[in-house]
Amino acid sequence: MTDLATVTRLLSDLIGFDTTSRYSNLALIDWIEAQLVPLGGHPIRIENSEGNKANLWVRFGPDLPGGLVLSGHTDVVPVDDQDWHTDPFSMTEKDGKLFGRGTCDMKGFIALCLAFAPFMAKRPLTRPVHFAFSFDEEVGCQGAPLMIQKMIEAGARPDAVWVGEPTLWQVVSGHKGIMLTEVVVTGREAHSSLPQLGVSANWEAVDLLSALRALERDLARHTDPESPFDPPYPTLTIGELQGGTATNILARECKFLFDLRCPPGFDPDAILAPFIELAARTDKALKAKYPECGVRVKKLTNVPPLTPGEHNAAEALARALTGDNALRAVAYATEAGQFHQAGMPAIICGPGSIDQAHTPNEFIDIAQLSEGVTLFQKLVARLN
Ligand SMILES: [Zn+2]
Q: Which of 99, 157, 328, 380 is the Cys-Cys partner for 65 at CB 3.0 to 4.6 Å?
């Protein structure tokens, strides 16, 4: 069966495609499809509205409900302003590690899928095995929902979804949900010596930010001592904040983005309701002064949480193959939450450490891929 050298060669090929989320992933999708179709895989592409990115869903085995999904995202985070010692899009081996953007998050898992596809295809499959490769995961899991919708429409209804995000092959059965919100406050420019002649978007934003700060301080109150999450309560952070152009001009625009991460059982909309109300009141008050002023709140993403401890088929399979029986939950969101919400039981388990994801000089230990070869051999042997 497949050896480590095949996996490494495929990973090197995958790293060679610069699939930073802002670019098209179609060259990579073409390449993957060209490997899988000759093996008998049945491909379906699900494109974004602009037609420059696509999810690739490939089915092996019969067109029936049930079966297994192996899922991974094809996009990677940017390398801008990061201090790389090697070309991030040309895989480099050194000291038992493979360096390159996406080696860990998460083309290593895709390389394993591709390396083992010929052997999966040869199994006498009575239930399907699906590959689900998505786009735009790194910008808020925006691609996968289209593919999940397509699966539902096609009646695929898999029993188990295996999302190969980097977990050092530990079985992660829970993650928080993430809601990402953008707020744009529009004011009216005037000389800063005459503030009565305009509206400072920055001052208005400060009031809104203070309200968020109060909400954020309140969240830790919701600590659940039994929770497997760290920290064991919802968190709210303001990741971006920009406003104004000069010290002597009232800011015309102030924009900020915040993320709210909730463990299962919390309703992010309910938590944010007082803030949304304040924003609407402020918007009305500003528009009454000058029609061009106001506050715009835009929900960018809302990735649902993955609920741990549900003991489903995905978890049972991953535990049987890895031998990891610990209950693990993480604070980052993945497509697993989206599959889970759609009624498809999902777990996260894959090669490499999340510590190396998104960093300059991202790498994967070759030992992690080698462990993957052993795991996939066991997986293939179980497919029927
Ligand atoms: Zn990832």
A: 157
